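We give this protein:

***
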Amino acid sequence: MFTGIVQGRGSLREKVNSGGAMIFGVEADFELSDPEIGESIACNGVCLTAREISGRFFRVDVSSESLYRTNLGGLLIGSKMNLERALRLSDRLGGHLVSGHVDSTTEVLDRVSEGDFIKFYFKVPSGLERYLVEKGGVAVDGISLTVNQCNEKFFSVTVIPHTLSRTTLLERRRGELVNIEVDMIGKYVEKLITPHDSDKKNKISKINPAFLAEHGFINEK
């Protein structure tokens, strides 16, 4: 589990084919204190397992599923990626709950400078529009961001100077692909309120849009 608060950046030093998968060698720009083989490290928002750690250098396995679902397969030697180590229960939850299970990639539609800030516009991946909510959370390349505007075609986020200085977003240009993970809570709520075959045969769940509206979880218009 992660928070989307990026700790630093990593440089891709090795990229080795391993059947249909790959092994990445990554060098972080920060100290990997208390390293533990098998720990989870989010690379551009993708939860990967460290198979080796030595100083600031670590190797991870990247499965065929991760290569298919994310932008990791398109990275070249020397490419930068956002890094975050797994959340401890005692840590501050500074961003939002991020699983590291990327839903899709999408492209940068535009970027507009607003003083020291940059406003990014991203294409909404097909099927994910219902999970993007104005002022809700979204992880872009592993970065916890707040949705400014959203519709079926695009959503926008405004990135503060601190985030620009610590992540790869400053280098992102039109047409480039980023990893998207929508808020997992929305997906669980949707599953809970969607009737399943067993519900239809036996009973209907009491958790439905009317119930959520009555208890203040959603606005029913």
Q: What stands out?
A: The longest strand covers residues 8-18. The chain has a mean pLDDT of 91. The two ends are 34 Å apart (CA to CA).
